[in-house]
Every structure is written in C-alpha cells, then in structure tokens.
Amino acid sequence: MSTSYLPATTDSIAQALEAKNPSESISIFYRILESPSSSPDSLRIKEQSITNLSDLLRQENRAEELRSLLTQLRPFFALIPKAKTAKIVRGIIDAVAKIPGTSDLQISLCKEMVQWNRAEKRTFLRQRVEARLAALLMESKEYSEALNLLSGLIKEVRRLDDKLLLVDIDLLESKLHFSLRNLPKAKAALTAARTAANAIYVPPAQQGTIDLQSGILHAEEKDYKTAYSYFFEAFEAFNALEDPRAVFSLKYMLLCKIMVSQADDVAGIISSKAGLRYVGPELDAMKAVADAHAKRSLKLFETALRDFKAQLEEDPIVHRHLSSLYDTLLEQNLCRLIEPFSRVEIAHIADLIELPVDHVENKLSQMILDKKFAGTLDQGAGCLVIFDDPKTDAIYPATLETISNVGKVVDSLYVRSAKIMA
C-alpha cells in the first residue's frame, strides 16, 4: 500500500477502474481512502471506493484484507451517518461470506464487530451482526453458543419492537431448534416469526424462507401434502427472484411427491417450464429415487444413494426421510416378491432381494405384526407361510347392531315402567 494519498475525486475512481490489473486498482482505492479530506463530496467518493475495493478483494479471494479493511475504516465511520456505516459493514461481511472456506474468519470478524459496536453504542448494527453471528455458529454446529446468543437477542429486539429483525431471529431460532430435533420449540419459533411477519411488509425472499421452513417442519411430521404446498410457495418466490434456494424448494417438492407414493408426478414436474430451468444433479437425484420407488426396486434405490450421495445423504432434510423411504421400498419389494407364493423359504427371498437373511426375517416379522400382510414365520423350517386375505364375515357387525338395538329397547321399556310405577 502506497504512503502517498490520492484526492477523493471521481477522477481518482476512474483511474482505479482503468488500471491494468486488480492489484493496481486495489492500491489506488487504498490511496483514495487515505485522503484527509472530509467534505461531503469526498465522503461520498470514499463510500464508492469502499464498495469497489471490497468487490475487488472478494474477486481476488483476499478475505484477511477485507477483515483488516473493516478495522482500518473505523475512524471513517465516525464521520458518516450510522445507517451508512451499517450498510458498509454488512456489505464487507457479505463480501467475506462469498469467499469459500472462510467460516472461522467470518465468526471471528462478527465477534470483533459486536465488541466494537457495543463500545460505540451502535445498537442497531450490533443486533444485526449478532443475528449473523448466530447463523454462522449454527452452520458450524456450535448450537449451544448460538442458542445462548439468540435468547438474549430475542428479548432485546422484542423490547425495541423491531419486527423485521424479529422475523429473521425467530426464523433462525426455528432452524436452530429443528437442528437440535426439538420440534415443538421449532414450531413455536416459526409461529412467532409468522405473527411478526403479518404485522409488516415482508420482502419476497424472507417470505420464501418462512414458507420453506414451514414445509420442512410439516414434512418432519409426515404431513407431506401440506409440506408440498409450502415448498411450492417457497419455490415460486425464489424462482421469481432467481434465488439459488429455488432448486432446493423444487427438490423438496419432489421428495414430498415420492413420500406420498406419487412418484409418477416427478417426471412431469421436472419437465415443466419452471422445472427445466433447474435441471441438474439435485433433480437427477430425486428422479433416480422416484424411478426406484415407482419400480419398487431396492437395488435401484441403493444405486441412486451411491451415485448421488452428495445430493441425498449429505442433504440433512432429505437424509431425514431416507430411512422411512428405504423401509417403504423394502416393504413394497418384499410384498412384490412374496405375491406368487403361499409358502416360501426366507433364504430364497433374501437371495432374490440381495439382503442378509436375518435382516429379511426381522423385516417380515415386523410387517406381519403391522398387518401389512397375513402370514406367519415357520422358524423351524426357515419358511414364510402366507395366508389368503381373510374375508370379513358380515354376521358379526350385524349381531353387534342387533344387540345394540335390543339394549335401546330395554332402556326404553325401563323408562316407561318407571313412569307407570310412579
């Protein structure tokens, strides 16, 4: 960085933008920021220089320099309004976030900014940086620290009645409790976010986030039809904004279709006008699972899991439903295999399905207890005996109805006799 400063003028900015390489542009912007002038025009030029400089540093992946830039700009923040300071600080933090592999740096940067904001008594900015810090801690799986930070922040923001920030924080709390598998608290926090959102205008992106979280919680409760409608609302919002989260909303929509045994609809959704925009590994993974489900093929399902591990097993939302989906497919596969038989060796079924005998035997016994089919296990002979579906005999319901009617007649006669005796 050069020691000689450049005057904060539009000419200096033009000089920086016309520089031959990014390093030279960065050096010129630093020199503009060193200008001692504090006139309104100079401050405006410096603000523009900061924006351009942070963009260049982000493009060059110089995260540490962005961090030191925030420290260097603290005297400058005293000269400009607090709202502009907040915009610059959040812009630089966002720039650091766009550089891959900077999670730890972002956390330490946010902690530094929280301390500085507390010392400078900048409450508005501190609360937003703390909310960002809580989100970063949650991503890093530091759940207890994030929860402690949020609990104090929620009380403070509710007292100030900052509805827009309150929606963000309640949403974050809902995600945090969901990660900790505390569904009642996750639902309560989401309800609080919806209540706050109803009182103000909520940007479409934030409304989409609320709908996405609602869908996730309903899917967790196995209410896939309601979850599908929420994911659809989220998808429409994100699709209109060209938000990258649109593909995940669409992916979860397809998951809901598969979970309610409507796998045939998946291909239609993917080939729709909106779906074609997001064709890629995420949708290919769900299509492979849908095909396996439609064909009741456990082998195809396991192939899909292996081929699309990043999209299926490493996605925490999809992964939560994979075990129940696997059980459903296993049951359907076993039902398909035992359909032609009245008595069959368990070892033969295990060979057909390519799974261990013990695993197949345990699953068959569970299915018999759950009344998925009528049968019994002959463990001495190592066979499964399948019974014909028992036909319901109409005489029993008719007998029960007759007894019920006789009871009513007796009660009526008793009431009449009591009146006569009186």
What does this structure look like?
Helices cover 75% and strands 3% of the residues. The chain has 422 residues and is mostly helical. The protein has a domain at 1-100. The protein has a three-stranded antiparallel sheet. Strand 2 (375-378) and strand 3 form a beta hairpin. Helix 8 packs antiparallel against helix 9. The model has no long low-confidence stretch (mean pLDDT 88).
Structural class: mainly alpha
Binned strand content: under 5%
Distance between the termini: 112 Å
Shape: elongated
Helix content: over 70%
Strand arrangement across the biggest beta sheet: 1-3-2
Low-confidence stretches: none
Overall number of strands: 3
**Biggest sheet features:** 3 strands, antiparallel
Encode the helix/strand succession as letters: HHHHHHHHHHHHHHHHHHHHEHHEEH
Number of helices: 23
The whole-number mean of residue pLDDT values reads 88
Radius of gyration: 32 Å
Family: Belongs to the proteasome subunit S9 family.
Protein name: PCI domain-containing protein
Keywords: Proteasome
Summarize the SSE layout with pairings.
Layout: H1 10-17, H2 22-33, H3 40-59, H4 63-72, H5 74-77, H6 82-97, H7 103-120, H8 123-139, H9 143-160, H10 163-179, H11 183-198, H12 204-220, H13 224-241, H14 246-259, H15 264-270, H16 273-276, H17 281-294, H18 298-307, H19 309-312, H20 316-338, E1 343-345, H21 346-353, H22 357-369, E2 375-378, E3 383-386, H23 395-421
Antiparallel strand pairs: 1-3, 2-3
Helix pairs in contact: 1-2, 2-3, 3-6, 4-6, 7-8, 8-9, 8-10, 9-10, 10-11, 10-12, 11-12, 12-13, 13-14, 14-17, 15-17, 17-18, 21-22
